[in-house]
């Protein structure tokens, strides 16, 4: 049996821990699989690159989740609803798209259900998180720099606002889904406004898995905070099940965690 090849597509992607996580799981289970990184420059090239690399499956990260959605021939119900894909597998020459960000995010919250949530950013990750939180009864406000990307949320009944018009409110949870802090020391929005918003929050979550300025501000203010590492691990766990078309014991999550 030949090794199956998988990869993560993104830009930037050199920082990604996904190869460590998936290769650790393949090794632990004795499965013949190999997982690598691929830096994509043009989202429209996703499908061509997927097939030229002879991949069996892939994960997709910032900023190509909507491009991957468009490239798929078949979509699961949740991916279809949110218009974003983070997991793709090949079956008989067709691309099947899924989204494991939502269950990954909810698992990472460890049972915390916010009454009011502010999501910063309006990309594919924000879409998954917004629908996941809405499904458990949280009131969600999506804020973004530009108005255009907010249209998707507005058409689906979410409250939206551009950063320049965002007012200070009482949000139990603030989630950063932007790339601010991924490879620099920037904030997703005005640090003055962000601090005022955070001072009223009880929990902040950054989908980036490093100690960003966003998280450092929360620490300084004494607010419960969490980076994206558990979300990454859980979405990887669910993606791994899709890659292998098999359910795995939750103990595999701990194996994946030790791999990084």
C-alpha-based Rg, rounded: 18 Å
Q: Mind describing the biggest β-sheet? A: 6 strands, mixed
Strand element count: 12
Oligomeric state, counting identical vs distinct chains: single chain
Structural class call reads: alpha/beta
Percent helix? 25-40%
**Which outline best applies?**
globular
Account of the 3D structure:
This protein has 260 residues and is α/β, with parallel strands linked by helices. The protein is 38% helix and 22% strand. The chain has 11 helices and 12 strands. The chain has helices spanning 18-29, 46-52, 65-71, 77-82, 101-108, 124-135, 151-155, 191-198, 213-221, 229-244, 251-258, and strands at 4-10, 33-39, 57-60, 74-75, 87-91, 94-98, 116-120, 139-144, 159-162, 173-176, 203-206, 224-226. The strands form 2 sheets. It has a 6-stranded mixed sheet, sandwiched between helices. Strands 9-8-7-10-11-12 form a 6-stranded parallel sheet, sandwiched between helices. α10 packs across α11. The longest helix has 16 residues, at 229-244. The model has no long low-confidence stretch (mean pLDDT 96).
Helix and strand arrangement:
Layout: E1 4-10, H1 18-29, E2 33-39, H2 46-52, E3 57-60, H3 65-71, E4 74-75, H4 77-82, E5 87-91, E6 94-98, H5 101-108, E7 116-120, H6 124-135, E8 139-144, H7 151-155, E9 159-162, E10 173-176, H8 191-198, E11 203-206, H9 213-221, E12 224-226, H10 229-244, H11 251-258
Parallel strand pairs: 1-2, 1-3, 4-6, 7-8, 7-10, 8-9, 10-11, 11-12
Antiparallel strand pairs: 3-5, 5-6
Helix pairs in contact: 1-10, 1-11, 5-6, 5-10, 10-11
């Amino acid at each position: 049996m030949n090794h199956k090849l998988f990869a993560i597509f993104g830009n930037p992607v050199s920082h990604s821990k996904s190869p460590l996580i998936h290769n650790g799981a393949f090794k632990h289970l004795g499965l013949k699989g190999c997982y690598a990184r691929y830096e994509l420059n043009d989202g429209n090239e996703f499908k061509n690159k997927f097939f030229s690399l002879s991949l069996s499956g892939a994960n997709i990260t910032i900023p190509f989740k909507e491009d991957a959605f468009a490239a798929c021939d078949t979509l699961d119900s949740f991916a279809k609803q949110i218009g974003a894909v983070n997991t793709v597998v090949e079956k008989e020459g067709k691309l099947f798209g899924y989204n494991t960000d939502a269950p990954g995010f909810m698992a990472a919250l460890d049972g915390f259900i916010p009454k009011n949530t502010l999501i910063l950013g309006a990309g594919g990750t924000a879409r998954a998180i917004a629908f996941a939180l809405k499904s458990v009864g949280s009131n969600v406000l999506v804020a973004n720099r530009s108005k255009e990307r907010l249209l998707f949320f507005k058409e689906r009944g979410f409250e939206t606002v551009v950063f320049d018009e965002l007012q200070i409110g009482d949000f139990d949870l603030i989630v950063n889904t932007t790339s601010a802090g991924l490879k620099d020391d920037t904030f997703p929005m005005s640090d003055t406004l962000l601090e005022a918003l955070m001072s009223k929050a009880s929990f902040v979550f950054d989908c980036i898995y490093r100690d960003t300025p966003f998280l450092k501000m929360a620490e300084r203010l004494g607010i419960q905070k969490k980076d994206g590492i558990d979300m990454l691990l859980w979405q990887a766990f669910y993606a791994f099940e899709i890659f292998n078309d098999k359910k795995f014991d939750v103990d595999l999550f701990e194996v994946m965690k030790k791999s990084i």
